[in-house]
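User: Just a sanity check before I run the rest of the batch. Below are the structure tokens for the first item. I only need the designed sequence back.
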């Protein structure tokens, strides 16, 4: 499981880069696509997608791990596709590369970009499998350094510069991933992340308060464990035990003031995009599990507003050789709900969101 982690580029995407080669059109729409936005979502390898709708420039930026086959750049980091309409996309470009000499040598997972006090902050997860961490009592695995680093830029288009001397936002002793920025109703920033099952056996979602410079000012707080969701299923391991996965927390406050969280784990039929709700309306919860939003090996999604005001969800599907999938959503006051699959944008004729 979670060998997420080999990002295998689809043959169609590779064909786009081969000298003298052109990929065949995927539809009549793609045949007429030219200029700065020649790609369609089925031609774009991506995992853990994150979209920023930049109203200042009328541009959608889709962030994902850098793939050398798409950018021609082998550095470990983040690439971004750009679009004006969520259907036609630019070739990606590297917006952040991990500097040489940093402690990490792998990962670049789950990039997110958030605006805070006039600047834009990139959070993305790196690791070093050779840097062992102490195992927790009863664990059958040896954890290693994994954590979300932060970089900063003056616009969502980058380029982003590494912050905090390349140290993770939470202590390096915790094996963590998929960090996100949440700003609460009082305007205070929080860092929320998944505490990795490799270290904990049962993965958790945790939060730590930040100061105005986005540095931790308190101890991590447990929000919930993966096995709190009745739909989630443990994953048997070669060591003989069973582990539970937490991935991809991301927050949305409804028009009625309800605070909900997207997160992912594994269900009966593979990877699942799920929803939880804070009963207090605050990040510290308590959190109740509302169940899956999207199943069928889909997940690690995020919500954003399109320029026409629609609430949208982007996920990757399938887990291996992942591509982007878009849904139109409804703010239902006490939760969010799927309205429909936006197949006119992602060109995937999939019969149902379940």
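Assistant: Here's the designed sequence for the first item:
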């Amino acid at each position: 499981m979670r060998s997420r982690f080999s990002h295998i580029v689809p043959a169609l995407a590779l064909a786009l880069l081969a000298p003298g080669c052109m990929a065949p059109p995927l539809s009549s729409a793609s045949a007429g696509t030219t200029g700065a936005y020649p790609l369609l979502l089925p031609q774009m390898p991506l995992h853990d997608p994150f979209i920023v709708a930049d109203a200042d420039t009328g541009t959608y930026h889709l962030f994902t791990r850098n793939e050398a086959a798409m950018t021609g750049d082998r550095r470990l980091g983040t690439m971004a596709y750009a679009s004006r309409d969520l259907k036609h996309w630019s070739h990606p470009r590297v917006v952040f590369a991990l500097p040489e000499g940093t402690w990490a040598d792998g990962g670049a997972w789950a990039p997110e970009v958030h605006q805070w006090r006039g600047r834009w902050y990139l959070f993305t997860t790196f690791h070093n499998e050779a840097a062992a961490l102490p195992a927790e009592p009863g664990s059958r695995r040896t954890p290693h350094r994994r954590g979300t680093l932060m970089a900063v830029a003056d616009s969502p288009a980058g380029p982003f510069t590494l912050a905090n001397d390349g140290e993770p936002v939470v202590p390096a002793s915790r094996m963590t991933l998929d960090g996100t920025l949440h700003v609460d109703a009082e305007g205070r920033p929080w860092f929320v992340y998944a505490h990795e099952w490799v270290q904990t056996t049962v993965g958790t979602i945790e939060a730590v308060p930040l100061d105005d410079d986005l540095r931790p000012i308190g101890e991590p707080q447990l929000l919930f464990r993966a096995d709190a969701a009745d739909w989630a299923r443990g994953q048997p391991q070669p060591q003989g035990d069973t582990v539970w996965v937490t991935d991809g927390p991301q927050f949305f406050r409804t028009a009625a003031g309800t605070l909900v969280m997207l997160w992912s784990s594994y269900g009966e039929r593979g990877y699942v995009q799920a929803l939880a709700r804070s009963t207090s309306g605050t990040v510290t919860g308590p959190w109740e599990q509302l169940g899956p939003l999207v199943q069928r090996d889909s997940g690690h999604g995020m919500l954003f507003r399109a320029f026409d005001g629609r609430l949208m969800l982007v996920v990757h599907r399938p887990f291996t050789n992942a591509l982007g999938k878009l849904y139109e959503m409804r703010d239902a006051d006490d939760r969010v709900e799927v309205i429909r699959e936006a197949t006119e944008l992602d060109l995937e004729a999939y019969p149902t969101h379940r």
